[in-house]
Amino acid sequence: MPALRRSSGGNLGNKDLKNVRSIGLLTGREVCATGSQQFHLTAECAVGRAGRQVLRKELVERRAMKSFDLALFGQKPRICAEFAPSEWVVVYPGGCLDLLRTIPDGSLQLIVTSPPYNLGKEYEKKLQLETYVGQQAEVIGECVRCLAPRGSICWQVGNYVDRGAITPLDSILYPIFSGLGLRMRNRIIWHFEHGLHCSKRFSGRYETIIWFTKTEDYVFNLDPVRVPQKYPGKKYFKGPKAGQYSSNPLGKNPGDLWVIPNVKSNHVEKTEHPCQFPVELIERLVLSLTNEGDWVLDPFLGTGTSIIAAIRHRRRGVGAETFARYVQLARQRIRQEIEGTLRTRPMGRPVYDPIEAGNKLTVAPWKKKEGQAALLERSPRYRKKTNR
Fold first, then answer.
1. What is the residue extent of each domain of the chain?
2. CB atoms < 10 A from the CB of 35, how many?
3. pTM of the model
């Protein structure tokens, strides 16, 4: 990615970057975001006078897109407290079962959530596992009733921990979904680098998203969520296509192992909520499993991330939250997203690598013991970095 220098340096200047919220990478292109939408700027054009002309053109197009957004919503969408099919944003201050009972059958295209893990966090009361599973079954049953025939349910869960022993919640919840006739499409592994450090077992650094559909005919849009190819210049070496590029120019399927940073203390999206979704995680599900104008529900809304991801891509969002402070936070963040001022990590930005960035904290202050970190030292990626 080319550096974005000041105007005096001959590249993109600060004036050109007015209203630009973030920079990232997506399918080999630079991604800049103004307000709640993203626009693309090819890396080749992102330098010098020509780059400034391209960026100005993109900003003009962004203003046109904003007019389209207002036409889509009719006006800036209001944040309602009660569900109605004609609304765009609903934050229900109460239990999800009460909300679900007001939603007609087959109304929701995507239901995505991260329910309480029954760990005794401030927003939940720790229950016997059987009681917890029974409560989840009641919520899931109502969700299936409200799910559209071509819709999807994505349940993001981790482990239930009791006296040091873990129970994978997805394995316990799977029979509930399958018993209701849903079909499992993927068990997605969400990998992240930060979390609690364990001393008597390996530290947990992943959670799962179990994705179910109601029928065999379901919405799945792969192109909007493709990621850069590993070898975009690879060509067919034989057959009728010999010499032609073999990769999809839009990128490759992201697979079922997603490396996305979790929201911890230094994350730009961090609030006071202890278990917060990163927006880009939900964006990938919204883009691939819904179409514009569809309803997206999060029955355990938290700080509003699922609704933010929905309205960012012109979908309708609804969620329920019982904790008053989180209702307030959700409304505040959704309002910021509507106004184009919410700070989020751009979808597709590479994960921060402290060694590549030259972070001095990567240099150990002690002498390594014999055999220590042998696996890293054998890796070409780390060898030249660690021997400096």
1. 7-72, 76-339, 355-388
2. 20
3. 0.75
